[in-house]
Amino acid sequence: MTGKIRVVVAKPGLDGHDRGAKVIARALRDAGMEVIYTGLHQTAEQIVETAIQEDADVVGLSVLSGAHMTLVPKVARLLREQGVEDVLVLAGGTIPEEDHEELKREGVLAVFTPGATTTDIVAFIKSSVAGAAA
Fold first, then answer.
1. What domains are defined for the chain?
2. For residue 101, what are the contacts with CB-CB under 8 A and spacing of at least 6?
3. Rounded Cα–Cα distance for residues 134 and 131 (Å)
4. What are the tens digits of pLDDT across the range 29-59?
């Protein structure tokens, strides 16, 4: 991979709390990544459009509303439907552990919950993007 890793950080749905997403966006930026933060209340379609337009390597979805089993798989499915197979999808927020495996079956590479460190998230993204480019 050449150039900076490009990450779209998005808040799908009606969730109105974005402090965690902003902390992650800042940490990724501080780690040398190019971050596009979409803001609150994004539809799955808007997130996918942004990922395509920005030529993203990663889409990070922050969900605290409990709608993760609907919104996150929809973003992954829409990316596939658009022929975008090389964008890594990550989820974060208050997502119960019992939902993690189903989200992974739906196309999510990893799920980060409260307590995950920004250092771990940065390292995961760097190694995953490098592995996808290989």
1. 6-133 (3.40.50.280)
2. none
3. 5
4. 999 999 999 999 999 999 999 999 999 999 9
